[in-house]
Amino acid sequence: MMFFWAFVVGGLICVVGQVLMDVGKLTPAHTMSTLVVSGAVLDGLGLYEPLIDFAGAGATIPITSFGNALVHGAMAEAERHGLVGIITGIFEVTSAGISAAIIFSFLASLVFRPKG
């Protein structure tokens, strides 16, 4: 049942993004930004953690989880280090994912040649 709810919740998040692009005529960049901000707002309101507990990977894989991670890291570090912790918390929580994206993109550029 856990896989079912992960699929449903992750799919619904993706449907929201698709509706924003198709009906709202938002660009992919605007849609992505809207989803990140939505995840951040939901985490700020304390609603994203229960969604993660319920849906697991269905809530942690989509881009909304990035906004959740930003706010979650900032709040945790703000409690420990004050105002400076807000900035360091954002970088601490997201640095591994961003670093992995940069490293794997570089490795892919060594293997594949762009067409153009």
Automatic annotation (TrEMBL):
Domain of life, source organism: Bacteria
Membrane-spanning ranges: 51-71, 83-112
User: Which key words tag this protein in UniProt?
Assistant: Membrane, Transmembrane, Transmembrane helix
Note the InterPro entries from the entry.
Spore_V_AE, SpoVA
The record's PANTHER family line, in alphabetical order, gives: STAGE V SPORULATION PROTEIN AC-RELATED, STAGE V SPORULATION PROTEIN AEB
* UniProt protein name: Stage V sporulation protein AE
State the gene name recorded for this protein.
spoVAE
